[in-house]
């Protein structure tokens, strides 16, 4: 009987505890939602001078984006109705001021305001708190320590390595050149740019373009990058996934962690091997006597004025960041440039003639050749205008910001820059959807705002690797045109989709023929 009474008392106490926990949980949720509603009302008032397209009370503008290849054009269309900037809502509580005009973007890019703590926060488990997402003094210190890795003297020997990687890819394309069928080139280009980044930045020959599966899982790394990019986008568009614990418990969260492990294993192996090699060689001079300095050398040996280097965690974050930024964004730029030239045969031929003249019988590019192809460079820039590899970016204000027309947004506001929207803004660019490389003649560029064309961002937080990227774009495009004639496949038009970089839902397809066989 005593045992029964004890069990009854324990059960009753347990019930009361669970009941109290349920009440406290309900109160917490109600308070949390109330706080969000108050915050939502504050943002509605703060952004009332920036009207935007009609929104759903719960989903905001999320359901307007169908992921069908037309979403980018929708933002441009909205920009026609709401000049300069307009508000966009992701779910019921997250608002972003979307700017799409040079005079507005000038203000935000001239500042050192940090990246937002929403979409970029979702990247941190993957690429860490590196140069892309960090802010304040940490960002400033890392930027200063990493800048020597992109010096002219460091970049110069990379051209030969880029050229070799491009040649390997073009050799593989021989099979496609004998067929009348088109082929998807983004995957090929991604492997090639990864091959380049491994050679240039990490002095590592992976043979990832020729060995099936790649050494050290290089191809699995590319698949992981694709998956991580998609999952970050899914998380941004799915409001409940903004909660860390809900996302971690979801199937998408499991996939994200699994893909992160693949990416981290890849970069950790690179760092481990280099640290072993540097054990007895701590001076850059002695390393340089054996081979060219690379990004990882400078990263591992960098010291500030107090002779303090980067922590192991910071080194991995910067390697993860550069592995992604250095190959995926460049792959996007190269792929869309080749597609643009395939769609514009007259410009393609002018570029080819220019390249043949510059190379003087050679098949590969050298450092001195980069300045000898001005028309090809203008075509590359025009493609970057139409198809910016990074179609947008976002900052979070640490203080109020006033734009040139007097309108002000408060501290804490998320300000998104639609690079795609700026590059297709009809008030800035005449006939903005047409491919016209002559826009980038010096006399024409001088008439425009320097913030009308920002594929690599601008201001103090501009892309640290933009010269690296432009060099690789020139090398790959020039060597491709020297060897092959590109033609579009009208049955497989790419469907643009913004991920972390600009991709295509159905791939980017072209047909190729050897130049010497073209009548």
Automatic annotation (TrEMBL):
Top-level enzyme category: oxidoreductase
Endoplasmic reticulum listed as a keyword: yes
Catalytic activity field: androst-4-ene-3,17-dione + 3 reduced [NADPH--hemoprotein reductase] + 3 O2 = estrone + formate + 3 oxidized [NADPH--hemoprotein reductase] + 4 H2O + 4 H(+); testosterone + 3 reduced [NADPH--hemoprotein reductase] + 3 O2 = 17beta-estradiol + formate + 3 oxidized [NADPH--hemoprotein reductase] + 4 H2O + 4 H(+)
EC numbers: 1.14.14.14
Source organism of this protein record: Salmo salar (Atlantic salmon)
Function: Catalyzes the formation of aromatic C18 estrogens from C19 androgens.
GO cellular component, one term: endoplasmic reticulum membrane
PANTHER family in the record: CYTOCHROME P450 FAMILY 4, CYTOCHROME P450, FAMILY 4, SUBFAMILY B, POLYPEPTIDE 7
UniProt keyword annotations, A-Z: Endoplasmic reticulum, Heme, Iron, Membrane, Metal-binding, Monooxygenase, Oxidoreductase
Binding site for heme: 463
Pfam families tied to this protein: p450
Compartment list: Endoplasmic reticulum membrane
Protein name per UniProt: aromatase
Gene from which the chain derives: LOC106605105
Family: Belongs to the cytochrome P450 family.
